[in-house]
Amino acid sequence: MKFFVDTADTDEIKSLAEAGLIDGVTTNPSLIAKSGRNMSDVIAEICDLTTGHVSAEVVATDFDTMVSEGRKLQKIASNVAVKLPLTMDGLKACRTLSDAGTAVNVTLCFSANQALLAAKAGAAYISPFIGRLDDMNIDGMEVIEEIRIIYDNYGFETEILAASIRNANHVKLSALAGADVATVPPNVLRGLASHPLTDKGLAAFLADAEKAGIKI
Ligand code: G3P
């Protein structure tokens, strides 16, 4: 499974990229707004920090403007993936941009039927939002599982990009469900490495090594 980091914080991205932990980045208008920076500038900087796809989302809602914004975003860097919302205009723009060779990440997906349409529209990625479904007491992971079955039934190459991930359990369950990518907030990504028994065991090893005077 590929790990993307879900942030526009370039310091976080740089640190995680240097650790070899990320295969790409996803942003959205809220994350760009949180950065307080010009969108083109921050996307260009992020694209230099990873060789993987960097999702940059349009802010238009009509087909024509979505396509023109998508073309502008694509010009920023070759590894930009244009993010389009899962609406009829977004699906139409997905078809147009993907036919022109642009990688499209169709976002704000909350059902298997929506994901089926995105695959038919040529999306490179589909982003089902697990956490926001869970927030409504709907099993977000069930949508991932359903999409996996449907995509495999028909050989769709669209990659399932598990999004709106809130915790380590979402990551594990996404991997078990066969998601191709998980886009993970920086703190959750770092937290995947943590376990109290690892800390306890390492402390014991180091104490014994010091007691025995082990030098390497
Ligand atoms: O960026 C896409 C998605 O991961 C955002 O989800 O629920 O954390 O805003 P959320």
3D architecture notes:
The protein is α/β, with parallel strands linked by helices and 216 residues long. It has one domain: Alpha-Beta Barrel (TIM Barrel), CATH 3.20.20.70. Helix content is 53%, strand content 17%. It is built from eleven helices and eight strands. It has an eight-stranded parallel beta barrel, surrounded by six helices. Helix 9 links the parallel strand 7 (159-162) and strand 8 (181-184). Helix 1 packs parallel to helix 3 (39-49), helix 4 crosses helix 5 (88-99) and helix 8 runs parallel beside helix 9. The radius of gyration is 19 Å and the shape is globular. The mean pLDDT is 98.
Approximate helicity band: 40-55%
Give the total of domains.
Answer: 1
Instruction: Write down the CATH topology.
Output: TIM Barrel
Output the radius of gyration.
19 Å
Approximately what portion of the residues adopt beta-strand conformation? Answer: 15-25%
Average pLDDT, rounded to a whole number, is 98
Largest sheet: 8 strands, parallel, barrel
CATH class: Alpha Beta
What hetero molecules are bound to the protein chains?
Answer: SN-glycerol-3-phosphate
Shape: globular
Helices, by number, come to: 11
Q: What is the string of SSEs from the N terminus onward?
A: EHEHHEHEHEHEHHEHEHH
> CATH homologous superfamily?
Aldolase class I
Which regions have little confidence, pLDDT < 50, spanning 5+ residues?
A: none
For the largest sheet, list the strands in their spatial order: 1-2-3-4-5-6-7-8
Proper CATH architecture: Alpha-Beta Barrel
Task: Give the CA-CA distance, first to last residue.
Answer: 36 Å
Structural class: alpha/beta
Let me know the number of strands. 8
Catalytic activity: D-sedoheptulose 7-phosphate + D-glyceraldehyde 3-phosphate = D-erythrose 4-phosphate + beta-D-fructose 6-phosphate
Protein name: Probable transaldolase
Function: Transaldolase is important for the balance of metabolites in the pentose-phosphate pathway.
Subcellular location: Cytoplasm
